[in-house]
Amino acid sequence: MTENNFAEIEQLVARERLFRARHNPEIRDCYFPDATVATSWQKGSIDTFLGAQPTEVKQDTAIVGSTSTPVIHQNGKRAYVELPTTTRMYFDVNGVTAEIISFRRLIYRVEDRGDGVWRIASMISINENDELHPVNPSADLHVKDEDLKGLRPSYRWLSYTRCKAGGQISDDLLGTDRPDDIKRVYAEAEAWLNEAK
């Protein structure tokens, strides 16, 4: 039977999410220095990701996240991890405080590059679905149907709230409403995994 490192890898991605939520600087230790991260609001090096958040999010509130059990695919010193996650953020929408709940799947590529320590080489976010609610249930968000035309269903409310807050968001993010893009992500992850020595 092939030895696996599932416990170490699971703890690695769990720490990364916990440190991210708490703005803990130790999150940097979870990543290799040359790691890349792609989310709904940025894409690039680890330095562009750490210590930042979307500027449209209400800055006096916390971004709260929860995760499910990861699925780990390992080959030797490499693995990729599928981690379902739910993120809650507050935005001002048409003068009303609203909460957006975003359902995503994070795909991590992790490695042990020879020192016996697993770290993250890359992480990408796949949008699955989202919801929007007023924080005060009796409030009206004044959402107009015409404002939703053309918004992709995998991150419709994220797009709506970002634009309403004066921000921007790409129409070409990874989302489950474009299954061919998702198949490509998995094919690339499998190819990278099979390159492991």
Describe the protein's architecture and organization.
This protein has 197 residues and is an alpha+beta fold. The chain has a single domain (6-194), classed as Nuclear Transport Factor 2, Chain: A (Roll). The protein is built from 4 helices and 7 strands. Strands 1, 2, 3, 4, 5, 6 and 7 form a 7-stranded mixed β-sheet that branches. The protein is elongated. The mean pLDDT is 90.
Quickly count the domains: 1
Q: What is the total tally of β strands?
A: 7
The fraction of residues in strands falls at: 35-45%
What is the alpha-carbon Rg in Å? 18 Å
In CATH terms, what is the fold-level topology?
A: Nuclear Transport Factor 2, Chain: A
Largest sheet data: 7 strands, mixed
Look at the helices and sheets and give the structural class. Answer: alpha+beta
Q: Provide the low-confidence segments as ranges.
A: none
Shape assignment? elongated
In the CATH hierarchy, the architecture is Roll
Please state the average pLDDT score: 90
Number of helical regions: 4
Q: List the helices and strands in order.
A: HEEHEEEEEHH
